[in-house]
Structures are given as structure tokens and as C-alpha cells.
Design a protein that fits this description.
The structure holds two protein chains of two kinds. Chain A is mainly β. Helix content of chain A is 0%, strand content 48%. The radius of gyration of chain A is 13 Å and the shape is globular. Classes of the chains: A mainly beta, B mainly beta. At the A-B interface, strand 5 and strand 10 of A face strand 3, strand 7 and strand 8 of B.
Amino acid sequence: EVELLESGGGLVQPGGSLRLSCAASGFNFNSHAMSWVRQTPGKGLEWVSAIGSSGGSTYYADSVKGRFTISRDNSNNTVYLRMNSLRAEDTAVYYCAKEPRPWWNNPDHWGHGTLVTVSS
Amino acid sequence: QSALTQPASVSGSPGQSITISCTGTSSDVGGYSYVSWYQQYPGKAPKLIISDVSYRPSGVSDRFSGSKSGNTASLTISGLQTEDEADYHCCSYTSSGTLVFGTGTKVTVL
């Protein structure tokens, strides 16, 4: 059974940094791309970033480009999202999602999410 | 990248069929067969119910079906049940190499 467990969320001041982690199990991690998707309370989903199965390809939404960095450790089945220069509008639940292929297109399994709150 | 357009809400009576639209452009929905649909209950993570426009993953009820015409994808729920009351989100791959989600639709079973 696919399991994705996010951690690292919390309260941070504007301009601060956080690193989210997502521990994966139940599938061949190094054969699948991974994505991060966020959701503001009561609002829709927003795709944030994705990384290919080998880690050699990464993409970002314009809203986070230059501030967020996605990475992965295939030896430890973990994907990360480093978030710098955080803004109030980054406040959201952040979901880690598994992709069905080595590249991203249709996330097929999601974690339960971790809440990031950016506030002074 | 602008969000794909979905109706804010759709409602129907038990047993009826409803359809949720997801409108994008030729750079996303219209250009690729990578359109997916997710069901989300309050406080829960989204669950994939349709991928690649019309593929239904194992374990998903056959009352859910997906299609696409031009720049608009659609999710149809047949034989509406009370358990179908949830939020539904579409998602598409884009020509920029990114993903874009829809604005979300709340389904109410009357």
C-alpha cells in the first residue's frame, strides 16, 4: 500500500524558511516522479513543484520560483521542499503526491498534508 | 498559469446524473491527454478518481466517468449517491511542463 507521510510544517514568520519532508513507502520510489501541491483553507488546489524520478528534472509554479527548492533522496525514499522567503500567501496545507510515471502529469496518491502558517 | 475553470457548485438528487466541466486552453486541457479528477472530503486529502482523461483506477466506482472535447474536460457522476457529496478538482498537464488545477466544484446531493 502506498503511504506518503509529510512533516516539517508549522508556524514561521514572514521572510523565514522551512523544509518539508515526505517519507514514501509501498512503491518503487526511484521509478516515480513526485509533486508538491498546496491548498489554502477553503480554497482550491495549487500545484507547487515536481521532480522527476532521478531528481534530474525539476519544475516550479511561478508563484514560488526562486524561493522554493524541491529535491529527493532515492536512497531514503524521501522528497523535500525547501521554502525560503516565506510570505503570508504561502500559508496552506502542503500535500506530497506520487506520480504514476517517471515524469509528472496526474498525481495518483496523496499524503495527508502538513500545515504551513506564515504569520508574525 | 491561470486555474482551469470549474462551476463553483453542482447539485442533484439521488439517482440522477450530474456533469462537472473543466475548461482550459489548447495549452493545457486541449493539448494533452493528461487530465485527472480528484474527489476531496472536508479535512481529507484528495483522492484520484479519473486519470488520463477517462481512465478509472482500480477500486473507483464505475459511476464516475471522464471525457474531453476540445479545451473542456468533463466528469460525470451517474446514479448520484449521498456519499458523492464532496469537492471535485480537475488537473491538467500544461505546455510549460507544469500542472494546473481547476477552481474546484462542490457537489451537493439534494
